[in-house]
Design brief:
It comes from Paenibacillus sp. SYP-B3998. The protein is mostly beta strands. Helix content is 14%, strand content 43%. The chain has a domain of 76 residues.
Amino acid sequence: MVKVSLEQAARMATLQLEANESVHVLHPNQIIAFQGKSEQREDSLMKLPGMYRKKRFIQSRLYGPLQFMMGVPEGYSMAVVPIGIDDDLLYEFRHVLFYTEGITFTSHLQSVKNTLITQDLVKMQFRGPGTLGLLTTGPLYQMELHSDNPLYVDTNCLIAYPKQASLRLCVYGNTMASQHMNYHWEMTGQGKVLLQPCKPDRKLDEHMQGDSLFKRIIREVVPFGGIFIK
C-alpha cells in the first residue's frame, strides 16, 4: 500500500510507491520533488467533467517504485483519508489532491438550488480500498451527526458528508444573526462529516481565482506556460 507521510503541520507530504503501485495527482504543480525515472510520471489531459470541477486541465499518474514530495501554499493543509470498499461519504471534488490506484468514484448531482449556493454541480463518492489526499484550508476535523440534533455547518467549510444524511440550506439564530451569516447546511443523520476550520481564501490558490479560460489553457497546456503566463 502507498505510504504517505505528512510533515510540517500537514503542509508537505512524502509518498513512497512500491512496484505495481501508482498514484493519480490532480494538482501536479504541487509536486516539489521527485525521485524516480522520468518515464514513471505520465501527464495527461483531464476529462471534461474534471476540467470543469477542478478548473485545471492536466493531471499526473506516477508509477512505483519511486518517492515524491508534495507541498501546499501557506494557509493550506493536506489530509489523508483511508477509503474502504463500503465508504459512503460524498466529497467536494475540488478538494481532492490525489488518490491511489484502485479507488473508483461516481458522481451525484445536486439540486439546482444547492448548486447555485455551493457553486458545485456534483459531489463525488469514492470507493476503495485506497487512500485519498485532500487539500483543505486548515487541518481536517470530524464531527458526528445525530438523527434528532441538527448540526449547522458553513457551506464553505464542509468537505464531505454521508450519502444518506439529510441536508437543508438555512441560516439560524435571531434576525440579526441570520441576516449577517453565510448559508449553512442543517444536517441530521448517522455517521461523520469532514470539515475544514477555515473558509477558503481565493488569493492563495490559482484554481480558486477567476482566471480566464484562455489563460488557464495557455498556462497548463503550453510547455512552460506556468512560468511565462502569470
